[in-house]
Amino acid sequence: MDLLEREAVLQDLTGHLRAAVVGPGRLALVRGEAGIGKTSVVNRLAQLADPGIRILAGACDPLAAPRSLGPLMDLAPRLGQAVRGALTGALAGTCRPDEVFDCLLADLSSYPSLLVVEDVHWADEATMDLLRYVARRLPSVPTLVVTTYRDDEIGRTHKVTALLGTLAGYPWVDRHDLTPLSRPAVARLARGHTVDADELYEVSGGNPFIVTEVLTAPTEAIPATVREAVAGRLAGLSAAARRVVDTLAVLGRRVPLPVLSDLLPASEEALDEAVAGGIVRTDGQLSEFRHELTRLAVLDCVPAAHRLRTHRQVLAAKRSRPVTADDLPLLAEHADGAGDPAAVLEYAPAAAAHALASGAHREAAVQYARALRYADLLPLGRRASLLEGHSLACLASSRLDEGIASRRTAVELRRALGDRLREGDDLRWLSCWLWPFGRTVEAGRTGLEAVRVLEGLEPSRELARAYLNLCQLACRGHEEPVVTAACAEKAIALGERLGDTGVVVQARFHAAVADLLGSGSGWEECEQAVSGAMGQVPPEDAGFLAFAMCFFTALRRDTSRMTAAVDRAEAHCLDHDLLPHLLCTRAWGSWGLLNRGLWTQAADAAQRVLSHPGSPPVVRALASTVLGLVRARQGNGQAWPLLERAAGLVDSGCLLDTGLGWEARVEAAWLGGDPERGQAEARSGLDALAERTHPWLSGPLACWIRRTGGTPPQVPAAGPYALELAGDWRGAAAQWDSLGCPYEAALVRLSGDAPALHQALAAFEELGARPVVARTRAVMRAHGVRPVRRGPRRATLANPYGLTIREMDVLKLLDESLTDAEIAARLYITPKTAGHHVGAVMAKLGVHSRQEAARRLHDPKL
């Protein structure tokens, strides 16, 4: 596990150590809550210490009767005979403690040392006296003393508080606070795990121990280790303090102290005990659990009768006062806990609607689901409304399976009620979200049914949006431009008649996209539509257009436009909490990185998308394809399982719609030395395209048939593909260069003359495309072209360490103390190759250990 966001503390501690061993000595206090990483920091400090420094480490234990001088007993084997003898005498009662202290001080004076005393909050009095004694005399010894303690477990009367008061006046004492991990750091640790990084951050509060345990056991609601750690803390509380903690767990993570006092009068002392135990903390007039997962672990153990009684008391108290919008979520939760269906149906839908209006989609989904548990008590119309709200909230929070299921049920209820308008609108919503769910055929059929139902009624906004949905499906499905244009015209006409600006803006965008994908014109119109949508339509609609632009620029391999489109879409989605749109944007972004030749970044981006449990099937298919292509191009194997997984996530039409599916399969076969399979895959893709005209989809498949030795059929092709099929490899390569696609440009140059082959070989080597490097050399040999041995590349010459780009990647990962296997996983190479890179880095830097190499990253002069 990476040691994140501790660089500044480690840098300070290593500086203290270097200064202390040449004198004067220093004392460093490292403090933070349980699980914050104190032990990890001091262990890493010991790893970074110079070989000539003696490491002495001891710890205090949470014993009912702490060991006398326990830490000193731990490290005694590494001390001199005089200290060991004095310690034995002190334990036997034949030697005074101060004689032990003198012997230890003399021993420390004789050798540069790092002395670590962990968990001082559990220390006995003799150890506390030892620290006072040594701390006062540290300037005379070449030693850094590092002590760790939990600052969440010491109160005003704790012995550590008294020790800190003694040390306050010593200028050679330094204090270091370890704070919880940030949201980005938690997301980095969660990379490669199928967990929602945002939810993990919320429940863990950034505590590294909790984060690690959740990632180790992602299927457990509360990991056993967390449950046991919380139980251990609770076991030390009095009955009164335990009652306070139980009540707070039922009330929620943050509880106003007056509310607690109303339920448990005279609870101040018990609350102070709970705070001293590190379970909860107070902040002004609020009491809160340090981590939501801690609260849930406590709540899991609260007797059912106590939970029920507390919920009923709080519900009654809150209902006796005026209710505000901010009260609704808690009222719904307490109504549910109190087993009061009427109150749940009163407050949960209102809380959900308020959350939805505020953009809190996950909270809205939770509240709608809470209300739906009691929906059998409601008339069909209200039940259908709850299902529609639940579907909308689930879709907005990227829980497509739940959202689609609720929308299907809503369609049935509206049909049973004879409510044709809402039935048609529900069908349109269902169609809209079946596409990202990977069901393009059903999406099209459902979209047509929505239009059929709504066309039988008076013209309506619902019908205008149903036309718009057909327009979107036609455009994403690469239908004939005339089909998209016809749908767009209907949507525009009805939208203008009804004054629905959102429909008009989006329909005009898709009409422009139809021109763009067909003739190549329409960029300005598309950009104007997206820019206009940002201020005129709801954020969800604007977000759809923004990430759709990423899709269409990706299809045309226009890397500069795509980079700008991804940046804009990601910013918009983050600002408005549009999770499914954001995940789609990031998947297209990984494709853009692939096209730009940034394969490691592309693989990382794709892996992050795959790790998110909310990624829709289409998004997962695209990310799996990108990751599979990176592995195939780098010759790492394991590409086909990813490509087959992508094909299994969506129907064949959707695999084609994304634009990368069939082409990736052809290329993977070619790279694997199986041109026959490559041609078969390409022809299968062209067969699927038989009723569509899309030159940016059919063109590459025809080119791959040509590259694999076959005769390409006459199909529409655009841009560099058309030039390649016409035999103009120079023109095709130049266009790929202008589009910013170095790999594709190099592929085209394989058909060229000797200089072109040399240029292709250099590009493939720079990219790390080992299979194509070997193929290029074979082509050069067949044509009598001798490869030229090149000196260091420009990037290597410009590097202050003399390292290649890949070797710099390895050096940065060495700085994270990763093993060869972990480096291999991060860079998508084999462990053996990672080991070769590590050896090359150490040789170029002239160092003898991985730790020395990592230190050179921060200071080249070392």
From TrEMBL:
SMART domains per UniProt: HTH_LUXR (SM00421)
UniProt keyword ATP-binding, yes or no: yes
Nuclease is among the record's keywords: no
Domain HTH luxR-type span(s) in chain numbering: 796-861
GO biological process terms on file: regulation of DNA-templated transcription
A Pfam family assignment: GerE
GO cellular component, one term: cytoplasm
GO molecular function, one term: DNA binding
UniProt keywords, alphabetically: ATP-binding, Nucleotide-binding
Protein name as it appears in the record: LuxR family transcriptional regulator
